[in-house]
Amino acid sequence: MKSLIEEWKYVTGSKFLLMIFIGPLIAALFFGLMFSNNQINKSPVVVIDEDHSVYSRQLISKLNASQYMKVTNVFANRMDPETLLANEQAVAVIMLPNQLELRNLHGKSSNIGILMDNTMPSGLMGVRTAIQEIITTENTTLSMTRLGQSGMDAETAKGLISPLSLQQRMLFNPTTSYVGFMVLGFVNIIVVMITTSAAGSIAPRLRKEGKLFVNGVSPVQLWVRSVPYAILSTFSLMLSYGLLKQVGSMRFEAEPYLFIVPLLVYCFALSLMGLLIGYTAKDASKVGLRSSLVVYPSFLATGIQLTPLAFPMFFQITAWALPMNWLNRLIRGMAFRHGSLTAYSVEIGALLVIIGIASLLIGLLMLRESRKTNSSI
Fold first, then answer.
1. 92-96 and 113-116: which strand pairing?
2. Is 318 or 87 the better-scoring residue by pLDDT?
């Protein structure tokens, strides 16, 4: 208890108290506003119309009416697509061939070309889907019209042309908002940086002050010193998530009083991991460099910008040792899908395992150091 009181007094007078709240909140506010309208619904496209017919103009109107595309310009003659895409005024060029209307009237097929600039794949979001939907609808409409002219009723013609129809729905993040994964990841990474650096400096600071073994050699007296960092990080994350929900319209379906339980376990695991990696540091200034061993892998392999399924199995298993890997799974589960607390016992159990292993290793390091100290005396 004495160690806990001493650490609370130190935390309240240090920069950690301000940084753990101000840093994530600023990131949540800035990035939340920056990406609040990030859905790319109207990607600019250019059309080269070589047919100059009524039907080609109708098709261009349908392309422009799509929620995914906006026709910024129509050219009458063929042009070099590299010229049209050079200044990033468009992400795709759609080419309507000559005699398009005439071939349709005669029941002949035509090839419509689309050239897409894939240097920035995010700008093409939805363009492929929109083109496929429009072309499929046009094919069905033209085929049903011809079958209707031959005397077949509309229902039979539809069953003959498209006996199966596909209806799809995007769940949990239907607008592909960046706030739910990228912005949230930035906020979590900032907390990882601040918490691991602050908790990692506990042992070097106490060693420098000559207080490391003042309350005994038991690792409990050092373990409890991580409590203030875990509690303050938990409340900082909850405030940041609430700000993202208000500013960035982030989906958050879980009850806060339930989600705070796994969040608190996560912050304890993060604090103890910081305490472990900083224990052998000779000076508190060296802890920041060591914390990169947790920060960079957490940013790359835990599902902030890229799903962990994209990595080889070795890297997926390696990420199990990172507390943020399980936090992201809890957020995607409880917060986004509104899952119950009992449904994520695996994630909470993994964090408890990390807490146990980190506590064991800290105890072994303290025991070894205490033996060296006693032998030298």
1. antiparallel
2. 318
CB-based contact 42:70 (threshold 8 Å): yes
Query: What is the reported pTM?
Result: 0.78
Give the sign of the dihedral formed by CA 339, CA 343, CA 346, CA 351: positive
53 vs 33: CA distance, rounded Å: 45
| Cβ atoms within 10 Å, residue 307 | 10
- Amino acid (one-letter) located at 64: N
Contact in structure between 252 and 263 (CB atoms under 8 Å): no
% residues pLDDT > 70 (the chain): 89
Q: Which tokens go with 168?
A: 């799809």
* Residue 119: per-residue pLDDT: 74
Query: Residue 317: phi, psi to the nearest 5?
Result: -70, -40
150-194: pLDDT as tens digits: 777 666 666 666 665 566 666 677 667 778 888 888 999 999 999
Q: What is the 3-state secondary structure (H, E, C) of 255-293?
A: CHHHHHHHHHHHHHHHHHHHHHHCCCCCCHHHHHHHCHH
Tokens (6 digits) for 275: 């305490």
C-alpha to C-alpha distance for 377 and 372, rounded to whole angstroms? 9
Residue 283 has which token pair? 């000076």
Q: Which amino acid is at 237?
A: L
| Residue pLDDT, tens place only, 114-146 | 888 877 666 676 787 788 888 888 877 777 777
Topology of the domain comprising 43-161: abc type-2 transporter like fold (3.40.1710)
Bridge-based pairing of strands 43-49 and 69-75 is: parallel
State the Cα torsion 302-304-305-308 to the nearest 10°.
30
Task: Give the start-to-end residue ranges of the domains of the chain.
Answer: 2-36+177-376, 43-161
Phi, psi (deg, nearest 5) at residue 48: -105, 110
Q: What angle do CA 28, 34, 39 make, to 5 degrees?
A: 115
In Å, how far are 185, 245, 260, 350 from 341, measured between CA atoms? 22, 21, 10, 14
